[in-house]
C-alpha cells in the first residue's frame, strides 16, 4: 500500500478482502481525481455480471457498461468489482439491478455525468436491456458507443 496519506483511508485496495454477501453490505471507496478540472470519460465493463431472479431464484447474466465523467472523485476499481460481484446472491429484477448500480455510483462519486447500459442475456426467450443516465451528456464530453451489439447470441 502506498505511503501517500490520500490512500490511507482505503480499506480494500492492497488488502485481502472478504466478498460482500449483498449490495447493501458492499462498501464502495473513492479516491481524489488528479484531473478533477478536466472533462473526460471513464468506462468500466463487466461482461460477466450475475444476479438472481427474485421470483424463480434462477441466475441472470448481463454485460454491463458503466460510463462516467468524474468530478472531484474516482470510484476505486477493487471496491467497484466487489460491489458488482455482491449481486451474485442478490434477488432483483434487471431494471432494479441496473438502475440502482448506476445511481449508487453516481451519487457516491458525485460524478458530473453517468450512464449505465445493462445488456441482459435472455431468459424465457427475451433479452431485457436496461439503460439509465444521470442527465444530458455534458457539452464537449466524448462518449463512444458501448460496443455491445443488439442481441443475436451476443457473441
UniProtKB/TrEMBL annotation:
Coiled coil: none annotated. It holds the Pfam family QueF. Residues 1-30 are annotated as: Disordered. Gene3D superfamilies: 3.30.1130.10. It catalyses: 7-aminomethyl-7-carbaguanine + 2 NADP(+) = 7-cyano-7-carbaguanine + 2 NADPH + 3 H(+). Keywords: Cytoplasm, NADP, Oxidoreductase, Queuosine biosynthesis. Pathway: tRNA modification; tRNA-queuosine biosynthesis. One of its GO terms (biological process) is tRNA queuosine(34) biosynthetic process. One of its GO terms (cellular component) is cytoplasm. SUPFAM superfamilies: Tetrahydrobiopterin biosynthesis enzymes-like. Its EC number is 1.7.1.13. It is found in: Cytoplasm. The keyword Nucleus does not apply. One of its GO terms (molecular function) is preQ1 synthase activity. The active site is at 53 (thioimide intermediate), 60 (proton donor). Substrate binds at residues 75-77, 94-95. Residues 1-22 have a biased composition (Polar residues). It is an enzyme of class 1 (oxidoreductase). Belongs to the GTP cyclohydrolase I family. QueF type 1 subfamily. Catalyzes the NADPH-dependent reduction of 7-cyano-7-deazaguanine (preQ0) to 7-aminomethyl-7-deazaguanine (preQ1). This is NADPH-dependent 7-cyano-7-deazaguanine reductase. The gene is queF.
Amino acid at each position: 500500500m502506498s505511503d501517500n496519506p490520500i490512500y490511507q483511508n482505503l480499506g480494500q485496495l492492497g488488502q485481502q478482502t472478504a466478498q460482500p454477501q449483498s449490495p447493501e453490505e458492499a462498501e464502495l471507496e473513492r479516491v481524489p481525481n488528479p484531473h478533477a478540472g478536466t472533462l473526460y470519460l471513464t468506462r468500466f465493463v463487466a461482461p460477466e455480471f450475475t444476479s438472481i431472479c427474485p421470483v424463480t431464484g434462477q441466475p441472470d447474466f448481463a454485460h454491463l457498461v458503466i460510463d462516467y465523467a468524474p468530478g472531484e472523485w474516482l470510484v476505486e476499481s477493487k471496491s467497484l468489482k466487489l460491489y458488482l460481484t455482491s449481486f451474485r446472491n442478490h434477488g432483483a429484477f434487471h431494471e432494479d439491478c441496473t438502475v440502482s448500480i448506476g445511481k449508487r455510483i453516481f451519487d457516491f462519486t458525485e460524478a458530473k455525468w453517468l450512464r449505465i447500459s445493462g445488456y441482459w442475456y435472455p431468459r424465457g426467450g427475451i433479452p431485457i436491456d436496461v439503460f439509465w443516465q444521470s442527465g444530458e451528456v455534458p457539452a464537449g464530453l466524448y462518449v463512444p458507443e458501448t460496443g455491445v451489439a443488439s442481441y443475436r447470441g451476443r457473441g
